[in-house]
Design goal:
Largest sheet of chain A: 7 strands, mixed
Distance between the termini of chain B: 40 Å
Radius of gyration of chain A: 13 Å
Strand content of chain A: over 45%
Number of helices of chain B: 0
Structural class of chain A: mainly beta
Number of strands of chain A: 11
Oligomer: heterodimer
Distance between the termini of chain A: 36 Å
Number of strands of chain B: 11
Helix content of chain A: under 10%
Helix content of chain B: under 10%
Shape of chain B: globular
Shape of chain A: globular
Largest sheet of chain B: 6 strands, mixed
Structural class of chain B: mainly beta
Radius of gyration of chain B: 14 Å
Largest interface: A-B, 29 and 26 residues
Protein backbone atom coordinates (compact mmCIF):
# COMPACT_ATOMS: atom_id res chain seq x y z
CA UNK A 1 0.00 0.00 0.00
CA UNK A 2 1.22 3.49 -0.83
CA UNK A 3 1.62 5.97 1.94
CA UNK A 4 3.80 8.16 4.08
CA UNK A 5 5.81 6.66 6.91
CA UNK A 6 7.07 8.76 9.78
CA UNK A 7 9.35 7.38 12.43
CA UNK A 8 9.57 7.15 15.29
CA UNK A 9 6.04 7.68 16.60
CA UNK A 10 7.32 9.05 19.92
CA UNK A 11 10.68 10.65 20.51
CA UNK A 12 12.19 11.94 23.72
CA UNK A 13 15.31 14.09 23.86
CA UNK A 14 17.22 16.20 26.31
CA UNK A 15 17.43 19.92 25.77
CA UNK A 16 20.46 20.90 23.70
CA UNK A 17 20.48 17.78 21.53
CA UNK A 18 19.74 17.74 17.82
CA UNK A 19 17.22 15.16 16.66
CA UNK A 20 16.20 13.96 13.20
CA UNK A 21 12.67 12.90 12.29
CA UNK A 22 12.26 10.52 9.40
CA UNK A 23 9.70 10.82 6.60
CA UNK A 24 9.47 8.38 3.68
CA UNK A 25 6.79 8.21 0.98
CA UNK A 26 6.12 5.69 -1.79
CA UNK A 27 3.36 7.66 -3.48
CA UNK A 28 5.73 9.02 -6.14
CA UNK A 29 4.76 12.56 -5.08
CA UNK A 30 7.04 15.40 -6.06
CA UNK A 31 6.20 17.76 -3.20
CA UNK A 32 6.81 17.10 0.49
CA UNK A 33 6.14 19.22 3.54
CA UNK A 34 6.78 19.43 7.27
CA UNK A 35 4.19 20.92 9.58
CA UNK A 36 4.21 21.42 13.30
CA UNK A 37 1.06 21.24 15.43
CA UNK A 38 0.71 22.65 18.93
CA UNK A 39 -2.48 22.61 21.02
CA UNK A 40 -4.77 25.43 19.89
CA UNK A 41 -2.32 26.55 17.20
CA UNK A 42 -3.38 24.60 14.17
CA UNK A 43 -0.80 23.40 11.62
CA UNK A 44 2.16 25.63 10.87
CA UNK A 45 4.51 25.08 7.94
CA UNK A 46 8.18 24.50 8.72
CA UNK A 47 9.73 23.57 5.36
CA UNK A 48 8.61 22.27 2.01
CA UNK A 49 10.25 20.78 -1.05
CA UNK A 50 8.90 20.71 -4.57
CA UNK A 51 11.70 18.68 -6.12
CA UNK A 52 14.78 16.71 -5.21
CA UNK A 53 17.71 18.80 -3.99
CA UNK A 54 15.52 21.87 -3.48
CA UNK A 55 13.55 23.08 -0.47
CA UNK A 56 12.05 26.30 0.84
CA UNK A 57 11.50 27.76 4.29
CA UNK A 58 7.98 27.90 5.60
CA UNK A 59 6.55 30.18 8.26
CA UNK A 60 8.52 28.83 11.23
CA UNK A 61 11.80 27.48 9.82
CA UNK A 62 14.11 28.88 12.51
CA UNK A 63 15.81 26.11 14.46
CA UNK A 64 15.03 23.45 11.85
CA UNK A 65 16.84 22.01 8.86
CA UNK A 66 15.89 19.59 6.10
CA UNK A 67 17.37 17.74 3.14
CA UNK A 68 15.85 16.25 0.00
CA UNK A 69 18.44 13.93 -1.51
CA UNK A 70 15.87 11.43 -2.73
CA UNK A 71 12.33 11.89 -4.00
CA UNK A 72 11.04 9.47 -1.39
CA UNK A 73 12.70 11.00 1.65
CA UNK A 74 12.45 14.34 3.44
CA UNK A 75 14.02 14.17 6.93
CA UNK A 76 13.64 17.02 9.40
CA UNK A 77 16.32 17.92 11.95
CA UNK A 78 15.25 19.79 15.05
CA UNK A 79 18.32 21.62 16.25
CA UNK A 80 19.21 22.90 19.69
CA UNK A 81 18.45 26.40 18.37
CA UNK A 82 14.72 25.66 18.29
CA UNK A 83 13.33 27.33 21.41
CA UNK A 84 10.20 25.24 21.92
CA UNK A 85 10.71 21.94 20.11
CA UNK A 86 8.11 19.89 21.98
CA UNK A 87 5.26 19.39 19.50
CA UNK A 88 3.50 17.00 17.13
CA UNK A 89 5.34 16.93 13.79
CA UNK A 90 3.52 16.01 10.62
CA UNK A 91 5.06 15.15 7.28
CA UNK A 92 2.90 15.42 4.16
CA UNK A 93 3.17 15.04 0.42
CA UNK A 94 1.19 16.08 -2.64
CA UNK A 95 1.19 15.31 -6.34
CA UNK A 96 1.35 18.96 -7.35
CA UNK A 97 3.53 21.47 -5.56
CA UNK A 98 3.01 25.10 -4.69
CA UNK A 99 -0.60 25.38 -3.78
CA UNK A 100 -2.26 23.74 -6.71
CA UNK A 101 -5.60 22.02 -6.34
CA UNK A 102 -3.84 19.03 -4.90
CA UNK A 103 -4.61 17.82 -1.39
CA UNK A 104 -1.97 16.95 1.14
CA UNK A 105 -1.58 13.40 2.35
CA UNK A 106 -0.23 13.11 5.87
CA UNK A 107 1.93 10.61 7.65
CA UNK A 108 0.99 9.42 11.14
CA UNK A 109 3.14 12.01 12.84
CA UNK A 110 5.98 12.05 15.35
CA UNK A 111 5.38 13.37 18.84
CA UNK A 112 8.60 14.96 20.08
CA UNK A 113 9.14 15.74 23.75
CA UNK A 114 12.21 17.68 24.82
CA UNK A 115 12.99 18.02 28.52
CA UNK B 1 -2.15 38.36 6.02
CA UNK B 2 -4.01 35.58 4.26
CA UNK B 3 -5.91 33.51 6.79
CA UNK B 4 -8.38 30.73 7.22
CA UNK B 5 -10.56 31.07 10.30
CA UNK B 6 -12.74 28.62 12.16
CA UNK B 7 -14.70 28.66 15.40
CA UNK B 8 -12.70 26.44 17.77
CA UNK B 9 -15.83 25.04 19.40
CA UNK B 10 -16.47 22.67 20.93
CA UNK B 11 -19.59 22.09 18.86
CA UNK B 12 -21.84 19.56 20.51
CA UNK B 13 -24.69 17.84 18.63
CA UNK B 14 -26.87 14.85 19.49
CA UNK B 15 -26.51 11.63 17.55
CA UNK B 16 -28.52 11.72 14.33
CA UNK B 17 -28.52 15.51 14.05
CA UNK B 18 -26.87 17.64 11.39
CA UNK B 19 -23.52 19.13 12.37
CA UNK B 20 -22.60 22.38 10.64
CA UNK B 21 -18.96 23.45 10.58
CA UNK B 22 -17.99 26.83 9.21
CA UNK B 23 -14.87 28.44 7.81
CA UNK B 24 -14.11 31.92 6.49
CA UNK B 25 -11.10 32.98 4.49
CA UNK B 26 -9.48 36.30 3.77
CA UNK B 27 -7.92 35.70 0.33
CA UNK B 28 -10.64 36.49 -2.19
CA UNK B 29 -8.59 34.76 -4.88
CA UNK B 30 -8.67 31.35 -3.18
CA UNK B 31 -10.00 28.78 -5.62
CA UNK B 32 -10.19 25.54 -3.68
CA UNK B 33 -10.84 24.36 -0.17
CA UNK B 34 -10.18 21.19 1.74
CA UNK B 35 -11.76 19.68 4.82
CA UNK B 36 -9.69 17.37 7.00
CA UNK B 37 -10.80 15.32 9.99
CA UNK B 38 -8.36 14.79 12.83
CA UNK B 39 -9.01 12.39 15.66
CA UNK B 40 -7.28 13.12 18.95
CA UNK B 41 -3.62 12.16 18.77
CA UNK B 42 -3.82 11.22 15.09
CA UNK B 43 -2.87 12.91 11.84
CA UNK B 44 -5.37 14.76 9.61
CA UNK B 45 -7.20 12.82 6.93
CA UNK B 46 -8.84 14.37 3.89
CA UNK B 47 -12.61 14.01 3.79
CA UNK B 48 -13.80 16.59 1.24
CA UNK B 49 -12.57 19.18 -1.21
CA UNK B 50 -14.50 21.76 -3.19
CA UNK B 51 -13.50 24.04 -6.04
CA UNK B 52 -16.75 25.49 -7.33
CA UNK B 53 -19.46 27.63 -5.82
CA UNK B 54 -22.37 25.64 -4.51
CA UNK B 55 -22.69 22.27 -2.84
CA UNK B 56 -20.72 19.07 -3.18
CA UNK B 57 -22.06 15.91 -1.58
CA UNK B 58 -20.24 12.73 -0.61
CA UNK B 59 -22.23 10.30 1.48
CA UNK B 60 -23.20 11.98 4.75
CA UNK B 61 -20.90 14.93 4.04
CA UNK B 62 -21.78 18.08 2.10
CA UNK B 63 -19.31 20.88 1.46
CA UNK B 64 -20.71 24.30 0.61
CA UNK B 65 -18.73 27.13 -0.96
CA UNK B 66 -19.80 30.75 -1.33
CA UNK B 67 -16.94 32.70 -2.90
CA UNK B 68 -18.81 36.02 -2.78
CA UNK B 69 -19.10 35.74 1.00
CA UNK B 70 -15.69 34.04 1.36
CA UNK B 71 -17.35 31.26 3.30
CA UNK B 72 -17.04 27.50 3.17
CA UNK B 73 -18.90 25.02 5.32
CA UNK B 74 -19.12 21.30 6.00
CA UNK B 75 -22.40 19.63 6.88
CA UNK B 76 -22.46 16.18 8.43
CA UNK B 77 -25.86 14.53 8.26
CA UNK B 78 -26.98 11.80 10.66
CA UNK B 79 -24.03 12.56 12.94
CA UNK B 80 -22.50 9.58 14.70
CA UNK B 81 -20.32 9.42 17.83
CA UNK B 82 -17.51 8.27 15.51
CA UNK B 83 -17.67 11.69 13.84
CA UNK B 84 -16.38 13.25 17.06
CA UNK B 85 -13.09 14.84 16.02
CA UNK B 86 -11.51 18.14 15.12
CA UNK B 87 -12.31 19.35 11.62
CA UNK B 88 -9.71 21.45 9.82
CA UNK B 89 -10.46 23.77 6.93
CA UNK B 90 -7.60 24.51 4.51
CA UNK B 91 -6.93 26.57 1.39
CA UNK B 92 -3.92 26.73 -0.93
CA UNK B 93 -1.49 29.46 -0.08
CA UNK B 94 -1.16 31.71 -3.09
CA UNK B 95 2.11 33.47 -3.92
CA UNK B 96 2.51 36.72 -2.07
CA UNK B 97 5.31 39.15 -2.67
CA UNK B 98 8.03 38.37 -0.18
CA UNK B 99 6.04 35.63 1.49
CA UNK B 100 6.35 31.89 1.38
CA UNK B 101 4.22 30.10 -1.15
CA UNK B 102 2.93 26.67 -1.82
CA UNK B 103 1.11 24.11 0.29
CA UNK B 104 -2.04 24.70 2.36
CA UNK B 105 -2.99 27.23 5.02
CA UNK B 106 -4.98 25.59 7.79
CA UNK B 107 -7.54 26.98 10.16
CA UNK B 108 -7.12 26.07 13.82
CA UNK B 109 -9.95 23.57 13.59
CA UNK B 110 -13.38 23.08 15.12
CA UNK B 111 -13.82 20.36 17.70
CA UNK B 112 -17.03 18.39 17.16
CA UNK B 113 -18.60 16.22 19.83
CA UNK B 114 -21.51 13.94 18.91
CA UNK B 115 -23.41 12.76 21.98
CA UNK B 116 -25.11 9.32 21.93
Amino acid sequence: DGGITQSPKYLFRKEGQNVTLSCEQNLNHDAMYWYRQDPGQGLRLIYYSQIVNDFQKGDIAEGYSVSREKKESFPLTVTSAQKNPTAFYLCASSILPTGGNSPLHFGNGTRLTVT
Amino acid sequence: QKEVEQNSGPLSVPEGAIASLNCTYSDRGSQSFFWYRQYSGKSPELIMFIYSNGDKEDGRFTAQLNKASQYVSLLIRDSQPSDSATYLCAAPRRPNYGGSQGNLIFGKGTKLSVKP
